[in-house]
Write a structure and sequence with these properties.
Cytochrome p450, 2 domains, three-stranded antiparallel β-sheet, binds protoporphyrin IX containing FE
């Protein structure tokens, strides 16, 4: 991934192996929640706001249908969550039901500009776009530094405790927004779209959700399902993996450079020498549409394929391939547990609280891929309340 400022690396653009390893070491405790015990409860606050926003402003009734872009609300959720857990900031997209600080708008402008410039080998910051977001992060980090960063238990505090400098923090925080907010909200949108276009799957998942609630395997509202409880629901997890298989949330090839000694790898059983300096990337689409891994119906959305308990060898290959959605090995996404937690909680709570349907089935969303990230618009749905007596 390209830098957000000329000459300055964040962890994802860092090509010096030693620095990359050191940074991972410094940042992993903040990402894993080890240094940040309030990560899940903070996320729950925003999942609850997400549900509240739909319930308070967008419910349809038998007498009046109200369409709204649930993809936009998922984006607000992801931006609010990253800001809260990463920057310790209450941004308020969900509270205000708008792109409050124009993060989404500015980020999209910045990425669209960079799409053109990176083709010529440049990066550029505009006064709006990424430049504006960078400025905001810098100010916010300075404010936090003045108010005694070491006192709180969040990611920023953890990064400082493990030796990141204030300038490092600016670029790591902006990376979190770019790498974490669009990807996670895209994943939520993809699950929603695939559920809404496959009624038997939708019904089966809602049955699993209702059964979990009836059996006390999920807390009663307004409490939010825990990450551990959501992880134990096999069909929910199968629906999420299958949606991300059919539509990976990010499609960049994330090239890695072969070291100066060169490297020999095995491809289809044959030994292949890779010369020093070669860039090796991967196509996440191709990996997830490989018939040898997923079978003949690889192009179809079928969550049941993840529940083939009897074929452990195939399942293991599928799971390994699924992991590549988040990169591989020592480069793997640091935010994977956070993303998985957020997607699972958001989908569970939507299914528990609302009956959703597509408002424009003939044209369910507008999609654009910019530098591997997806921008979606107009995922218009109707939401009917399922919870008797719930109040907005
Ligand atoms: C569905 C959601 C997400 C997907 C699909 C995803 C995917 C990826 C991928 C493919 C990589 C690149 C691995 C490589 O270089 O080979 C990556 C790296 C990274 N992601 Fe994510 N990501 C997601 C969510 C998040 C979130 C929520 C955060 C932050 C809270 C985050 C933070 C990072 C960071 C810091 C790296 C750099 C890791 C490194 O270079 O060591 N990601 N992600």
């Amino acid at each position: 991934m390209s830098r957000t400022q000329n000459g300055v690396d964040h962890i994802l653009s860092e090509m010096n192996e030693q620095i990359h390893v050191r940074k991972r070491h410094q940042m992993a405790p903040g990402y894993s929640g080890k240094d940040n015990p309030e990560l899940e409860s903070t996320m729950d606050v925003y999942i609850a706001k997400f549900v509240h926003l739909v319930r308070s402003r967008y419910l349809s009734t038998p007498y009046c249908a109200k369409s709204f872009d649930i993809g936009e609300k998922a984006q607000f959720l992801a931006v609010d969550v990253i800001n809260a857990i990463g920057l310790g900031e209450l941004l308020g997209d969900l509270d205000n039901d708008e792109d409050w600080f124009e993060y989404v708008k500015q980020m999209r402008i910045g990425l669209r500009i960079n799409r053109i410039l990176t083709s010529f080998g440049f990066t550029w910051r505009t006064p709006s776009g990424l430049g504006r977001v960078l400025r905001h992060c810098r100010v916010r980090i300075q404010e936090r530094a003045k108010s005694g960063l070491r006192e709180q238990s969040d990611m920023l505090t953890s990064f400082v405790r493990h030796g990141l400098t204030p300038e490092d923090l600016v670029h790591e925080v902006i990376l979190q927004l770019i790498a974490g907010a669009d990807t996670t909200s895209t994943a939520i949108r993809c699950v929603i779209l695939h559920l809404l276009t496959h009624p038997p799957v939708y019904k089966k998942l809602q049955d699993e959700v209702d059964a979990a609630v009836a059996a006390g395997k999920a807390p009663t509202p307004p409490r939010i399902i825990t990450a551990a409880e959501a992880k134990s629901l096999p069909y929910l997890q199968a629906c999420i993996k299958e949606s991300m298989r059919i539509h990976p949330p990010i499609t960049s090839t994330f090239p890695k450079r072969v070291p100066d000694s060169g490297n020999t790898v095995i491809v289809d059983g044959k030994s292949v020498f890779l010369p020093p300096g070669t860039n090796v990337g991967y196509s996440v689409y191709a990996l997830h549409r490989d018939r040898r891994t997923y079978g003949e119906d690889v192009d179809e959305f079928r969550p049941e394929c993840w529940l083939l308990g009897k074929d452990q060898a195939r399942l293991s290959a599928m799971n390994k391939t699924h992991d590549t959605t988040f990169g591989y090995g020592r480069y793997q996404c640091l935010g994977k547990p956070i993303a998985e937690m957020e997607i699972s909680k958001a989908i569970f709570e939507l299914m528990r609280n609302f009956d959703l349907s597509l408002a424009r089935p003939e044209n369910p969303w507008k999609q654009e891929n910019v530098l591997g990230l997806f921008f979606h618009e107009d995922l218009l749905v109707h939401a009917v309340d399922r919870v008797q007596g719930a109040t907005a």
